[in-house]
């Protein structure tokens, strides 16, 4: 299995406190890490996906830590978190470096036109740091259900 690339990014924890998140600090625990990359705070698709994680966190937190990453600022994350009551970690990848390392940034086709941007992607990283599952170009609606199925959890 492929190993997850270690990284450190600034962000907001589940309680809304500013943190510096390093992947290595969360490995070795008894839970997987659901690392998901999304384009922009408070846009329709990203809000749908974030609220889906929020609404299923009571189940997911038994198996994994949820971490969302976008190029948005910490200030933007704070507003997004407060507006929708998001109860998981959000990280800011302003330079899109981590996104590029994970293949979650690059060329994509939107409305028939090729553009460059964030490719909505999710990775499940096991406690030993290996990538258990990777989804690329995910649809926001219904994606958390796919994750629950993969984890063998009834939603």
TrEMBL record:
- Which InterPro entries did the record assign? AhpC/TSA, Peroxiredoxin_BCP/PrxQ, Thioredoxin-like_sf, Thioredoxin_domain
User: What EC number(s) does the entry state?
Assistant: 1.11.1.24
Keyword Heme annotated: no
| Reaction(s) the record says it catalyses | a hydroperoxide + [thioredoxin]-dithiol = an alcohol + [thioredoxin]-disulfide + H2O
Q: Which domain of life is it from?
A: Bacteria
What are the record keywords, sorted?
Antioxidant, Disulfide bond, Oxidoreductase, Peroxidase, Redox-active center
Pull one GO CC term from this UniProt entry.
Answer: cytoplasm
Which PROSITE patterns does the UniProt record give?
Answer: THIOREDOXIN_2
Which GO biological process annotations does it have? cell redox homeostasis; cellular response to oxidative stress
Task: Check the record and name the CDD domains matching this protein.
Answer: PRX_BCP (cd03017)
The keyword Oxidoreductase appears for this protein = yes
Q: Check the record and name the Gene3D superfamilies matching this protein.
A: Glutaredoxin
Q: Which residues form the Thioredoxin domain?
A: 1-155
Any single GO molecular-function term of the entry would be: thioredoxin peroxidase activity
The entry's family comment says: Belongs to the peroxiredoxin family. BCP/PrxQ subfamily.
Subunit structure comment from the entry: Monomer.
Tell me, what does this protein do in biology? Thiol-specific peroxidase that catalyzes the reduction of hydrogen peroxide and organic hydroperoxides to water and alcohols, respectively. Plays a role in cell protection against oxidative stress by detoxifying peroxides and as sensor of hydrogen peroxide-mediated signaling events.
Provide the protein name: thioredoxin-dependent peroxiredoxin
Name the source organism.
Sulfurihydrogenibium yellowstonense SS-5
